Amino acid sequence: MENIVRLENWSLTHGLYQAPEQGCHLIGNVYGHPTRPDGRRVRTSTVVRIDRITETIETRSGSIYELGEVDPDYERMFPDARKRVFHTILEPVGKISWDEASEEVLSEHAELWEKLAEI
Q1: Distance between CA 39 and CA 42 in Å, rounded?
Q2: What residue numbers bound the domain in which 28 lies?
């Protein structure tokens, strides 16, 4: 069985000067990580898979995260953050990779992207 790491006080970030289709990262305090002490604030590698069924997130490094409490400031900025991560961001049910989601979003909004490129 995979080692699942708990992430508390978490938020999602795209980082500075990073294209949205390159994915996002989690930031939070880790518990149960094989190389980081409990409570250490970390920024994960890129999110590659969101599993709605188990409500876990896999990153490019292969780590699997279970999300605990949302960072209060992040929750104020993005109400219902947990629900949005697992049930709103991605349309398909079950596992989907970030690349698949990005491709889906880009194709759905192709006309908007073309208009923005003209500006």
Answers
A1: 9
A2: 4-118
